[in-house]
Amino acid sequence: MKDGSDAVGDWEVLNVLINTAAGGSWISFHHGGGVGMGYSLHAGMVIVADGSERAERRLESVLTTDPGMGVVRHVDAGYDKAIETAKEKGIKIPMINEAGDQ
Known about the structure:
One of its GO terms (biological process) is L-histidine catabolic process. This protein is mainly alpha-helical.
C-alpha cells in the first residue's frame, strides 16, 4: 500500500467483521495465500443465493459493503483514484474531508 500499511492486519479483521454484519453466509479469515504462512492475511466470504428475498437483501448488502471497504481502505492509504471513486459513488468517508482540511 502507498502508506506502508499493508503490513498491518487491522483492515482484514475489519473486513471479516463487516462481511459478518452485512449478512455473509460463510466468512473466513486466513493467512498464507501462496506467499508463505503468516506473511499475508485474507478475508473471504460466501453468500447463499437461494432465490429468497432474504438472500437477495444479504447479497446486496455484502456485495455493497465488501468492495466499499476496499475503496475506504485505499482512501485511507492515500490513493487519489480511490478518493475520486468514493466521491463519484457517494461513499461517505470522513477522512476525505479531514485530508482536505489539512
